[in-house]
């Protein structure tokens, strides 16, 4: 027997004013341009739900809102409206770095305050921010004596997709660092997904489900309840309920970017807009830039992280990279394997790492000084083996050391065999748990905010997903959080030929990725070859956004391909503007970006295994100006499946805003263009 | 970057003997009749996996085994074989009550002892019991100083179904009491499922995934990882990791009943066989029997649970039921709404129930005595509102009271709005959590073992699922745990016409169900009608097994249909043998059962919305004997969609074991037969 029965009985006793199945709209609002609208309803049992329409057509059907709590009666049902308010907002803010300098933040906010009269009048607010290109909503828990602490067992938020849809997804909670291959499947066939979860409805509407401002809360995964109905699933904690908070707090924003096509998804600034403004003040010490590193040779098995005959992080080898960086205008030199501890079984525990003691053959202070003398900076490296307990003990000393040496950015790593990291549980004891748990989220945040105190920027590998927190803490420069180019060295299989065309409209919707592009040699370990042409390696610098970009290949390989290498030297990593010219998920993508430091534009286009010709209207260029287009394109016979993957043509053309270029991409190919105004 | 990369590096340093992707068979065994076989493998990273073949064909592909722990390094990878042993077992045991008196337990056991040499030599054993009709396996944690307590974050057990398959499933963790409609979908489209999860592979093989001996552990749900690969998902605890155990312990058995058809699934005794033998000794005080009750009238809205003008549980009304029971040979009279506390908002909290104080208009001692004087027993009723904290405080006193009054069985209820029950968390504080959590499982178990001390039998409504624990504690007579007949009173919609034909091969694989059949009036509240003919109501007594069965309709309705009612009076609830004659999931099912107290056989057959004629070979009857078949069949024009749903023909025939009857079932119909040997 269920309460359904008793809802009727209770109705008879007038406890509810409506039968349990009756729906009543209690609030609604539309976006400023009237593209999207939200309706909030309550049923006879006082259960809250919302639905979303786009241009009048329902795209998210009635979807539940609420929580099961562990320490109190649930926040699900028994709700009645206290009040709702609606307000319109329009402002523009400036990013210290990013894909565009100025971001417009135009939305209508709908605040819905509800209470559970029967449960001591407990209150909850659901706030919707309704943009023309997406919707975010979050729950606000006020400070209230009836609910001083909140222990969340389940978040019940649902997303009922009304039409049959195709999903591009990765499983949640599996490989740490979100390094699963991106899968394509009918939405009704997906498992538990991490976000962004991108879906294309049968009518062509695209939706990306994600979250914004994931701070001190468990990561939201999405599980299918039934059919095409998704429900939030909070990453479990090893210490108790998924989320424990005290006093007033807000949840992360649950976000839906909604557009007519894939390009429209990418053009939305919803997730950044829903984050808090910069809390660090002057962040001129955060430096978008390019770097090289003692790194790829280890992936090729020609060097090792640990000390020994093949140790890569030696003083001599690092000097070679510093010299190469200085000569070619790269600001950073990353060195992995510089510190003691790599001999141990670190991938399963990581307790033996020192973050302050270099190997004897690595002269850390000397190299830091040498780099500075050449106008270059070492990039620090902290591989934790996902032993966060051990790392946090050394973190302050390690940050201090780097700051003292003038190292101003750190790549951190959390490699662990699939599953769990070791962090401090809520009871203060060490606990193995999911990276995505509230405890995990707290650590990644702490690593960044503590780093800010030393004016250090962070590039997190094997991270929790990006939710736009970089707006608030601009020293969180980038992260990995997907399969990077390293999989082409040793992946079994390597990255698929359509990987970038999928990444752009899935993982990249969350934020920058340290993709480590630019391996012009197109070769991994043991004879493995990339599913890519050389031109595509260049295009990736524009297509896959990161404020710090690696030139990942070995210096000697760059010396073999000076023409191609010129583009890598030229391309900036900080942009005044970004336009997605076209794109179909997993098929192709073309992105144009304007340099922030010059009037130059850059274009990157990538394709899957299909060769194709994509028109590129140059209407983003300044009218009336002539530009020199430096074009790096696939040769006529280029093909990622043959030795002709190296066929690259570099040519220049004079163009204007009126021109339409035809970008011919080889199978597995790409194209990169620099557009420089003529004087 | 992931550890995959480093597995190669580590291989180079000889930490592993095989590359991570190489598989090595470390143990294998086949069932006694060589129908099913299991292979256990380890890969180069020491990860454990198993696979299952049926008659040489792989049906479960390589599937992971292991755990993520919260308080220690995971038990996943780094394993090497210590030893494996195999042994054959064949015995027969007797049930105090059940679907058959004697149960054969014939299997080959394969014990695989593994250790993690690098992790302090931690040991784990996986034990497979391989039957011809199914496989169970469990993990055994030995007492070991390196792992004194075990906190399980995730159980990683997988079930990789090799062929496309159709699933019949219900979502896990949603409606308490497992009262979801049974859904049919391609296996790849299911959400998080409770078990039994029944699937039919494209080659016709049927598999039911379930568990046996769920004691002091979290309930296993099944989630889809990807495609058709399922993984155990332990019901979350509000107090920390899903499972916390000390010292040596074993997990529940993970079970797969495997057969060529649906009938074969039902005929398997795997789940009972994998439970511990009876721990209660003499259980002659456990009484399979039939009962009536002050119950259906509340569902029809003509009575109320709480006191007032329509209060149903009055002394006078109860006497009427006692008289009716005595007159018609029913042993029990259930009375709901007898105790104080129903006025409050109990379905959301349940704190106000008294389990010892009757309403003033209900003379509990007097009625108990009156019943006994008539050879009838009151059946106790404990509705907890899922407030287990409050219930456990009163449980002992409540049991004591009933025992004193001669009440020897109790129907308990745990109605709560979807989601959570209130129980005592691991920290001793009240916690709202899932019924299926380790805490929930512990309570349901405690309610039964404590009841045994007072020789009380339990019929749990809104229970955790059955996993055969009734073998160990035979006073756990039955439970609800699915949509019962009550949904026909007020369900929106009521039970579907194919409900029973689905139940038999899904929910009923787990154990008895208090289905409350026999509503001959075929009518719910507010003019709702059953999707059933009257004949089907009779068939349900045979088709849906329970050692205690209700005659759920109002006495006055039985008086209207004396011919049909005779079958309800005759049919026993305890069986010497059971044969599934035929069945297709969701379409039809025919079951023949031999009475344990007489030489009579009973047959029940039910169909979905299709009328059909099913042959019934009577070869189960004693050869050479003549039987009188008392046949209760759908009339020729019977149809569940029309008023002719009441068309019932009762006829008798003389038959022998050589006869084959043709059972003609109307759309939505059924047939019930009693076979009595002629002298």
Automatic annotation (TrEMBL), chains A, B:
Residues 574-675 form the Glycosyl-hydrolase 97 C-terminal oligomerisation domain. GO terms for molecular function: carbohydrate binding; hydrolase activity. Residues 295-482 form the Glycosyl-hydrolase 97 catalytic domain. Residues 1-22 form the signal peptide. SUPFAM superfamilies: (Trans)glycosidases (SSF51445). It comes from the Bacteria. Keywords: Hydrolase, Signal. Coiled coil: none annotated. Residues 30-277 form the Glycosyl-hydrolase 97 N-terminal domain. PANTHER family: GLUCAN 1,4-ALPHA-GLUCOSIDASE SUSB, GLUCAN 1,4-ALPHA-GLUCOSIDASE SUSB-RELATED. This is Glycoside hydrolase family 97 protein. It comes from Telluria aromaticivorans. The lineage of its organism: Bacteria, Pseudomonadati, Pseudomonadota, Betaproteobacteria, Burkholderiales.
